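This section describes the prediction task in plain terms. A model, or a person checking by hand, is given the sequence of a single protein chain and must write out its three-dimensional structure as a string of tokens. No templates, partner chains or ligands are provided. The sample shown here is typical of the held-out split.
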Amino acid sequence: MRFSELIESLPSIRESASRELAGDPVIDAAAPMNHAAPGQISFYETGSGDEVVAGTNPSALIIPASNSRLKAAASSQGIAWVESDHPKLSFAEALELIHPEDPVEPGIDSAARIHPTAEIGADVFIGPFAVIGADCRIGNRCRIHAGAVLHHQVHVDAGSEIHSGVVIHRRTVIGKGCVLHANAVVGSEGFGFIPTTGGLRKMPQTGHVVLEDQVELGCNTCVDRPSMGETRIGSGTKIDNLVQIGHGVRTGSGCALASQVGIAGGALLGNNVVLGGKVGVADKISLGDGVMAYANAAIPGNVARGEVVCGVPAIPARQFIRSATVFKSLPEMLKSLKRLEKQLSVQPSAPEA
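The expected answer:
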């Protein structure tokens, strides 16, 4: 595909966007900036410098609209370029065109096991050794890959994709356009036990899980069902690999949870909450809309809307950063304090009046 054809097909590129075709090269691949080669396109994010251009050799670039120096540097080396208000988004659109996913043709493999009471929509793909339980409903254009297991009364809405090894437990509801990556487990029993004199007694987990539309779960992520009611993941929420969502958790829409996040039972997350890797959230607490937490934060209590936190236990990020700057000085500060205490203890007493 010629560069000119490619950029005309990207919705995020304005018609009036500045560009330099530089011979209108053929683009047959995309690559990260530090590995780009002839025939490939790459991108710079806003804030990138222009000094890296000299060390690479792509045929084309997507460049931040505000970076005139980078445009000049690319032009001087004969590299085609186009400006974008959102270069990373434009590059994502280019990736979809240059490297499209292999199509999955509808059809049900003869080795799949589908209960007679299950309802299967139109244009559905079901791979070998997938198991569809009693009273399940599978919407139109869903893709259920080899070895996935859906227990009874699972509802998967239109256009969702269930990858190999996924297990979806009873009465789980999966919305439209969801993606569950390999070995995710949805609707397994919540971790509920009652202490008794005879040991821990299991609390029956009779609730279910709801994933709203456009939710994505990473590999080996688990979302537990509660003893009553539901665990609910809000629309458009994206969850990385190896995340644990406890029973009764509810998230708002558009949340992003990085790898190894753990959310204890009953926690409530607002809209657009972002949690970095290994963040831990205590049970039954509330995180307001737009809360962000740095990686490894341990959040023991409620966090107000829009707050940014980090640390163990988590505190406002600015406060933590100020504190962190003196951590390395604490040993010397302690020595100084002890010297002052010693000096004060040997000073002669003031004469009596």
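For orientation: The chain has five helices and 38 strands.
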